[in-house]
Design brief:
The protein has about 850 residues and is α/β, with parallel strands linked by helices. It has 34 helices and 26 strands. Helix 2 (about 35-45) crosses helix 12 and helix 27 (about 705-715) packs across helix 34 (about 825-845).
């Protein structure tokens, strides 16, 4: 992880020692450095010494080195602890050197010392001969500084060290020279381990006393050393230290060229499908043979400390991706019947996650740093968080600007005119978060690139499928929006780090154009036609300003001409099939319908195969229909139709009960979209006998709705009691015993409210299923209509004994819950809209007809 402006490797003392000793048999040598405020002073703005020595011409000698950067200094330790959520030890060179030398003596490794005075070396040898008589000292070198900065002299010194057979070289030259010298000449010494531990020679020789433990524990070791050596250390602690401390607090520059060696990490097995998992990982691959094995290896490290299940969905790769995955027998492999795109592939994988607490979705071209999966999982303990995204870095270690703001016209214009040339500018002028300070600490964001995110499994079910209307790009913009609309937050956790190669599935001019077009498609989904047209013009402007590049030139030509959108890459989606298994005759589904010709087919077709195969009994009760609802329903295989002359939903429900022959029963509104698997899950839950009423998960589809309607439903989804009630999902079920308590449906407007009032909390449940989809009204007028109807139902119910007994007068309680859901300006605005709509509808209840419905959500399909 990054602490302040430098990269550090979070390891405990035993792990650090194991890494050093393990490197004695590794092919590439290991350089160990300590990160403290002095390290920040010298290297915060350029850690390229991990690849070359900036003070000396590079000869490429550092290419064979591996780097391990340890936490040293109380300020860095405290920062790392705060960001990672756990305590890490301070590991300075002087803290570790005795243990490392004793371990070297135990294994017979030869040790050498570079740096310090010749007199100090004589004292060092004498003391070590007394305290560690079995330690093999191959040699000591005390060159002048002029020799260390002279390439020829340094090469001669390195050759002498190599000839002496040194395996562990302690380089005590002080920062920054010791790191620079190792970077350039370390490989030439032949040492397997190079320890950049500046002051340890003086400590080991007894020339400088270490601070008492109580002083070190108080974080004042620097003051002790300053007191002993004010002339040598005054500039370091008093001049350079304070700016470095400020840099530690403010800087977010990330360089990870010193990734820790992982040869000593334990790998675990992945959890099988049938067992509970802490986390289920879903990876979508497409021609990912060069990446997937590395990601699987990283996830095995995570699986060592938790129950982790891995599902890989392959989108018809043409390379050896599938073969690479099949080499791992504990990975769940799903081979799609077409290129489903990223969102479609995730949907396929999410169906296979099984019983788990959380789901992490990952690109195949990622490396996942040790501990990152656990850190993201820990962040989900806060129930208000709907998703966690990690810090993303590029191959060269630089921070990738992965954080995003909600697209808007002004932000699109700012990006079109300025691009990424001015990184520090007001947030309203860019969709991309380019300020480095935003990548330093954990905070809430609108959304982030979808290469890596983790969500609670319950939120995955509530949000539902990724929309595949945006193949390859922009799926995450929509998905994160729907997470936020549940009332939950998106959390950025920089302590969790993934490294992204990017473009792992290939890039082309067509994909660049698709990215631009999908930005427009997203805005068209959630904004008015005028707004979307302006947004499209701004996107075209941005592409035209960069039309000197062929990709931007092609993108501009496609964005301005909608007929050319058909040229763009598409997903090849196979025909959807829901395969059910087990016994037949699981229960009945009753659908009351009055003039629902526009939507009835959409509701029935997903259930048709299950009905025709005998898993469910599917009955449509047409009541007072003057359109062709009945004819459309009869044309759907597996459907039975009952017709009533007069329109009455309670009468239709009762008629459906008379026609049905199976228990339990699900009562389904005619404009609700639900899958057969969700229906069967509810019926099976009722069949267990421990609950009397149940409903599926549900989600609201606000596409095409105006801003006020979307705001209302965002607030509604933050109300806890709404998430547990039987009403509002457009579907609820009853067991035979539960229906016995009901009797017949009374002539009330709110049948679902009435059913909910009949059962105590322990007698009803919401079944975790793929959510039913409730289409919201498109405008305020239509919203007020259905709210008036709902409140009218509540008034009727309060006149009923059952409704009074179970306290249906919940207006004050609901208002309190809405206010409690406020977390910031956006949610406060949503709460105000919700309360305003509620008051407006309540005041108008008596002035309008008994039955009202929304027609804007009923679009002929």
């Amino acid at each position: 992880m990054t602490v302040g402006a430098v990269a550090v490797d979070l390891v405990d003392r035993d792990h650090a020692v194991a890494l050093v000793l393990g490197s004695l048999s590794e092919a590439d040598p290991l350089a160990v450095v300590s990160a403290n405020l002095d390290h920040i002073h010298h290297f915060a703005h350029d850690e390229s010494w991990a690849r070359r020595a900036p003070a000396l011409p590079s000869e490429g000698a550092a290419e064979g080195l591996r780097w391990l950067t340890l936490l040293d200094g109380v300020p860095l330790v405290r920062t790392a602890n705060a960001r990672s959520g756990r305590d890490w030890p301070k590991l300075s060179g002087s803290d570790l050197i005795v243990t490392l030398l004793e371990s070297a003596a135990d294994v017979g490794a030869k040790v050498g010392f570079l740096g310090g005075a010749s007199l100090t070396h004589r004292e060092l040898r004498a003391r070590l001969a007394d305290t560690m008589p079995s330690l093999r000292i191959a040699g000591t070198w005390a060159p002048a500084r002029s020799e260390l900065t002279d390439p020829a002299a340094s090469r001669r010194i390195a050759a002498e060290i190599h000839a002496a057979g040194v395996e562990i070289l302690v380089v005590a030259l002080g920062k920054p020279l010791q790191e620079q010298w190792i970077a350039r000449f370390g490989v030439a010494t032949g040492a397997r381990v190079l320890l950049a531990f500046g002051a340890v020679v003086d400590f080991l020789a007894g020339r400088v006393r270490r601070a008492p433990q109580r002083v070190a524990d108080a974080g004042a070791e620097w003051a002790w050393r300053l007191m002993l050596e004010p002339r040598r250390l005054g500039r370091r602690y008093l001049i350079h230290g304070p700016p470095s401390l400020v840099q530690l607090r403010r800087s977010a520059k990330v360089v990870r060229g010193v990734a820790p060696p992982d040869s000593g990490l334990d790998r675990g097995k992945f959890a099988a499908r049938e067992v509970h998992a802490d986390v289920a990982a879903v990876v979508v691959t497409y021609n990912s043979a060069s990446d997937i094995a590395t990601l699987i290896d990283d996830l095995r490290v995570a699986a060592h400390g938790m129950a982790l299940r891995l599902i890989v969905v392959d989108n018809q790769s043409a390379d050896e991706t599938v073969d690479r995955v099949r080499e791992h027998g504990d990975v769940v492999l799903i081979e799609s019947e077409g290129n489903l795109g990223y969102g479609g592939g995730l949907n396929a994988g999410l169906q296979a996650v099984g019983d788990c607490n959380a789901v992490v979705m990952l690109n195949p071209d990622l490396r996942v740093d040790q501990g990152s999966i656990g850190l993201m999982h820990s962040a989900l303990v806060d129930g208000t968080i709907g998703a966690v995204v990690p810090l993303m870095v590029e191959e060269d270690g630089a921070t990738y600007p992965s954080l995003r703001r909600e697209p808007s016209l002004i932000r699109a214009l700012g990006d079109a005119l300025l691009g990424d040339r001015i990184s520090v500018r007001p947030s309203f002028t860019s969709e991309v978060e380019m300020r480095s300070s935003s990548y330093l600490s954990a905070h809430d964001v609108d959304w982030a690139t979808g290469a890596a995110l983790m969500m609670p499994a319950s939120v995955v079910r509530e949000v539902g499928d990724w929309w595949d209307d945006y193949p390859i790009y922009s799926e995450e913009t929509d998905y994160f929006r729907r997470i936020r609309e549940t009332g939950r937050r998106i959390r950025f956790e920089p302590a969790a780090v993934v490294r992204h190669r990017g473009g792992g599935s290939g890039a082309s001019v067509g994909l660049a154009a698709l990215m631009a077009v999908n930005r427009v498609r997203y805005v068209e989904r959630y904004h008015s036609r005028v707004y979307a047209a302006l947004f499209r013009a701004v996107v075209a402007l941005g592409e035209s300003l960069r039309s000197y590049d062929v990709a931007h030139r092609y993108s501009m030509s496609v964005v301005v001409n909608k007929r050319r959108w058909q040229e763009l890459p598409r997903i090849s989606k196979p025909e959807a099939r829901q395969e059910l298994s087990g016994q037949r005759a699981r229960g009945s589904v009753i659908v009351p319908a009055c003039n629902e010709a526009a939507v009835i087919r959409r509701t029935l077709e997903p259930l048709s195969e299950a009905a025709a195969d005998g898993y469910i009994e599917l009955i449509v009760v047409c009541n007072g229909c003057t359109d062709d609802t009945a004819a459309i329903a009869r044309a759907v295989p597996g459907v039975s139709v009952v017709e009533l002359q007069h329109g009455s939903k309670p009468a239709a429900l009762n008629a459906g009960d008379e026609a049905a022959t199976l228990w339990p029963r699900l009562y389904l509104d005619a404009d609700i979209q639900i899958t057969a698997s969700a229906v069967v899950a509810v019926l099976d839950r009722l069949g267990q006998g421990d609950v009397l009423a149940a409903r599926p998960d549900h989600t609201y589809d606000c596409s095409g709705a105006d801003a006020v309607v979307r705001s209302y439903y965002r607030a509604r989804q933050r109300i806890p009691q709404h998430k547990r009630a039987m009403w509002g999902a457009g579907a609820y079920g009853l067991s035979s015993e539960g229906h016995h308590r009901l009797g017949t449906f009374p002539a009330l407007t709110g049948d679902d409210l009435y059913v909910d009032s009949l059962f105590h909390a322990d007698e009803k449940t919401v079944v975790p299923t793929e959510p039913s989809v409730v289409k919201t009204p498109a405008n305020v007028g239509s919203l007020v209509k259905i709210l008036r109807r709902a409140y009218r139902g509540g008034i009727e119910l309060r006149g009923d004994d059952a409704g009074h007994r179970h306290g249906q007068n919940t207006g004050a309680r609901t208002a309190f819950a809405v206010v409690r859901g406020v977390r910031g300006p956006r949610s406060a605005a949503d709460a105000a809209v919700y309360l305003a709509m509620a008051l407006a509808a309540r005041r108008q209840v008596g002035d309008h007809p008994r039955w009202e419905r929304d027609e804007t959500s009923r679009v002929r399909t």
